[in-house]
Automatic annotation (TrEMBL):
Pfam families: GAF_2, SpoIIE. Keywords: Hydrolase. One of its GO terms (molecular function) is phosphatase activity. Residues 64-206, 227-370 form the GAF domain. This is Sigma-B regulation protein RsbU (Phosphoserine phosphatase). It comes from Edaphobacter modestus. Residues 1-34 are annotated as: Disordered. Residues 398-621 form the PPM-type phosphatase domain. Residues 19-34 have a biased composition (Basic and acidic residues).
Amino acid sequence: MANKQRRGTSPAAPDPEVAPEHSFEGDYRPRTDEAQQTPNIRVDPLHQVEFLHTLADALNTTLDLNTLMHRVSDLVRAVIDYKIFAILLINDRTQELWMRFQIGHTPEIERTRLKMGRGVVGQSALQRRTLRIDDVSKEEHYIEANPTVRSELAVPLIVKNRVIGVFDIESEIPAYFTAEHQRLLELVASRVAIAVENARLYTRVSRQAQTLAVLNEISREITSILDLDDLLERIGQLMKRVIDYQMFTILLWNERSQQFEHRFSSRYGERIMRDRTVPLGEGIIGSAAQDRESILAPDVRKEPRYLAVNPETRSELAVPLIYKGQVIGVIDLEHTRVNYYNEDHQRTLSTLAAQVAISIANARLYQRIHEEEQRMERDLEMARQVQLRLMPPQPPKLERAEFAAQFNAARSIGGDVYDFLDYGPGRVALAVGDVSGKAAPAALYAALVSGILRSLATQHLSPAALLSALNDQLQERRLDSQYVTMLVAIWDDSNQTIQIANAGSVQPLFVSLSSSGSRTTVDIKTIQAEGFPLGLFPDVEYEEFTLSTRTGDLIVFFSDGIPDAENAKGDMFGTDRLAKVLKSQRQPTASSMVDAIQKAVSDFQSGTEHFDDETIVVLRAL
């Protein structure tokens, strides 16, 4: 084992003391003349059956490869007093022998990899037969690993006609190993080979089961992360649990630039920022994306597609992230060791990449939705401010009447509209309307109605004529399934009368107060004004009522959001509860009456989400 190999030599001729090759798997039976030689071992042949029973027990009672090899080394030492003992196994991918277990070698020798045919061990594996070397100084294939070694015995481990490794024993005594040693070690090797293969199979199955469990756990965790930056960082952390790496990168495809951009990069456990982009088809990363297949580069120095971004990189594994048939990114792992990544890593990462792609797509979709929601919130807030500007900042002030109003939108913006229109000295037109629908469409239609209403107000039309004109204007701008209910009232401050016309709106309440001594009586009547909503039918005429008021009388206008307000049980506030609120007020002002109604409705709802816009306007005669 170790440092150098003689050049210019041909393979050694078969040892005459070693049995010729045969087709029997694991058949190490000695020739007749070898069997007759006097064994130079410390176990009496009569006790070899006991030794085989002990060997069988040692092999059959564990599936842990490390435990198995320690037991084998102890058993072999019981019959052969060796100086150096090693079990080398073949890497199926690289076809190299590496020390899985050793006693007596230095760490440098333990890390050595042997190609098939190199050294005594490599020759034993290549020729599929035992090599017993009495004097290593005369063996052309011998590699000097320890200057004190004089003799060597190498026995191949064969399972199902396939060499999986080699037993190697070395001694400081020339010609130390006998034919009986050889026969016994071959016997041990034939059984150990099966045990080693079973242990390796068990290890692979256990590792696969563990990997699948970890992959399942990772999949569950990453699907719950919706912030893209947090998701990518967590993927990098969780990836370490199944595949070790020294450099980790996730690149995502940018449709605008048509390139892959670094979204997350880690180097030796530290997050780093990279501005480099990768075009489709460039390097290992771009090629993996273009071919839509993972690329495993055991040695990047031999990979023509490799671009030397990290000079210390020796092995690389790149897997495309595919979602709904589209490549959305690439996961790239790098390591400083040659042949570090293998097919198992490739399969594991490819399996995980499918779930990673879904999680990234979900996170990006959530990010777009979140950004869109934020934009809509900003737009709605602006629309709300615009809508509030369309409503009068404060009620008009008259000598013989007072007004108060309150508007609460069910959402950020609503479809209710009210306005006070100047009709000249001592005259004010009041309009209270409710647009069909809610939120932005209703608010936009309400803005349209408000604009038309104000344009018509300059004509100082009567309530009925104003509603008819407004209906005609909406007919010219008709929108399917859009209409508005509205009540228009004109107050004349000179004689304290009010003219009312209604286009499908909630009928207002007339509250009159009468006193008899110390007793005040509250009388509530519904103003029976009716009519078709605006915007549905052409050429509609409306009825008009004129009412006289006395000092202290109130007229309460409200939208249907007041009586239709619901509590947690689904009960409606109704007009009866509204009447109780009106009767409970003694000598109210317009403002106090609005506050009382609003408080009663709010207490009734008790935190329940508002179903409809709520508008209250109160007129009180002074």
